[in-house]
Amino acid sequence: MPLPATVRVSLLFLVIAIVALAFSDVAITASNPWRDLGRFFLGMLTPDFFSYEGLATALVRTLAFAFVGVGLGSVCGFGLALLYRWRAVRLCSAFVRAIHELFWALIFLQFFGFHPLTGVLAIAIPYTGIFAKVYSEILDDVNPQAAHLLPRGSGTLVSYLYARLPQCWAQIRTYTLYRLECGLRSSAILGFVGLPTLGYYLEASFSQGQYSEAGAMLLLFYALIATIPVWVRRFTLPLYLAAAPFLLGEGFAIRWGNVERFFTEDIVPAPLRNGDGWSGLQDWLADVMVNQAIPGIWNTLVLTQLSLVATGMLALVTFPLISRHFGGPIRRGSGHIFLVVMRSTPEYVLAYILLQLWGPSMLPAAVALALHNGGIIGHLLGRHSSHIGLRSDAPIGLNRYTYELVPRLYRSFLALLFYRWEIIMRETAILGILGIYTLGFYVDSAIQNIQFDRALVLIVLTALLNIGVDKLSRVIRRRLALQTLPTC
Amino acid sequence: MSFIQLDRVSASFQGQKVLGPLSLTVAPGERVALVGKSGAGKSTLIKLAFDRAREQASTSLIPQDLGLVGALPVFHNVFMGRLDQHRSWYSAVTLFRPFQRDRTEISALLSQLGMAHKQWAPVASLSGGQRQRTAIARAMYQRSETLLADEPVSALDGPLANEVMALLRERFSTSLIALHDVTLALRYCDRVVGIADGAVVLDQPTTKLSEHDLLPLY
Lengths: 488, 218
What we know:
Largest sheet of chain A: none
CATH architecture of the largest domain in chain B: 3-Layer(aba) Sandwich
Distance between the termini of chain A: 37 Å
Structural class of chain A: mainly alpha
Largest sheet of chain B: 6 strands, mixed
Strand content of chain A: under 5%
Strand content of chain B: 15-25%
Number of domains of chain B: 2
CATH architecture of the largest domain in chain A: Orthogonal Bundle
Oligomer: heterodimer
Order of helices and strands of chain B: EEEHEHHHHEHEHEEH
CATH superfamily of the largest domain in chain B: P-loop containing nucleotide triphosphate hydrolases
CATH class of the largest domain in chain A: Mainly Alpha
Distance between the termini of chain B: 33 Å
Shape of chain A: globular
Radius of gyration of chain B: 18 Å
Structural class of chain B: alpha/beta
Number of strands of chain A: 0
Number of strands of chain B: 8
CATH topology of the largest domain in chain A: MetI-like fold
CATH topology of the largest domain in chain B: Rossmann fold
CATH class of the largest domain in chain B: Alpha Beta
Helix content of chain A: over 70%
Radius of gyration of chain A: 23 Å
Shape of chain B: globular
Largest interface: A-B, 21 and 26 residues
């Protein structure tokens, strides 16, 4: 019996992951990992909401950066979506969204310093690229007939307002709200590079072993995300948007001399700056490639493929937790909470926690990526599976899972997984900042060594790698005729 | 100048010829019914005629799938018929707060169609017949003397269909309406054009026709 194409592709990715496993460094190096993990969970169970007065400020800052960043991104993204026919706009959007928020933050930190603008732009720029793409896809999907029927001379703007926008407004709103949730996660992790959001305080609590304090922060963050539909309403949203710019904090003033130096000196490749000419530039580039780019790209690819397959497996295992075809309401309720926690925890935070507990290797990173992404896909699959109607005498238990549900869900599953491939890679690169030897590690080290020219080359390479994987994923999805709606 | 002047036109869909070569002329003041089996090419002909006719003058169209914006209320869907008559700011404000003048006019038009109570209901919440009447109201509201319509009363029951056809006859001096109901065609139009396999097979004034003459077309 010939295997279906979807199964062949899955097996291919499985084999790649097994080969990648052989090349990866996967180990627990901490002396007592389980004791620390136990302490961490104990901290979650005994949260201490009052030990730290800065907690409220951290939450307000996290919200403020998310609202300003996502708000700005959605307005600019909508503008660009109207111009998305232009190749230049498409390329620019693809490029800015291929660079992770943390990389943007690292760049802006070099010349804006700890000014609120750094955090705002770090979110707004990549989100602009994402919004431009998704909004334009949504707008293209609108039935053009209503616009076609308008009397001649109705005016472009008015045609838009009447015949196009209302048809997709609900979709745009849902997607933007969903992105706001992602923006909250992005905002929280910006703290890890020193901005005054949740990540900053989380890192401080962790490094001091204050697990109850860290637990309180995480629990509050989950509560904040889980209750978004309650506190973000049509009449409260404008209020938040208006207030957010004033709640970003003072930061430090921008030194414009730094800005000028960054663009005219820092990012100019060293050999050009020192007048070593073209041969010097060649040697310099070769050095960057051999010692930083190639090892970084290799490790990024290895970790990405490992995490991708682990994500897939986890999603397939966890979706029955919330599927109405398995278990009763109690089991499903706890399944929901489990998956919400998994997907609400930013992978960067998960990786940070696991790295603290298990010591540096690819293992904590892969587990963090799989938990977060597997949680998202598992949640979507579980919801999807609940819409499937089974005949009343359908088998139960494992047979129901293997014969009835997985075959019907497998295409959606693959579509979602390939959709997240590029996202997983972007995250993999960034996790290098935590000390795993992916591209982010080399970018971060270059910045620490005040070699911004090298850092910039590496960031651009990372972006190109992401764009390449995105293209490949699209080709595979088209070949297999997989369709998916935009998700985070 | 003729309202519609098609001279040996043809149309294909995915390599398959669906219409023509076909010639048809409709003069100002003529009310023409287009009859024929489904799949005979009526819808294609109406679309083609619309694209040509609007080049000359504003023309109302009621397509088979109505082309309404489901998320907007009935009022705004009707108002869209005159978007060319207002300045952009006026239309933009109307989207949020309609002006009294337009409210009165559209409300009067809707009550003629028995739809006054649905003026502020989103079109997505309406029944098939109510949606059809919304599209008819939009066509009537538009500043045009000519109408192209594709089965405009297919979702309305007998008496209502007659009322609406009478309104359309009164409002538009010139029209080309695709109809599958032979009785309505004979009652509300002056001339009947029969189509089969993408070609004109019958073209007579209504006065010379009976229902019996049209049966072979179906």
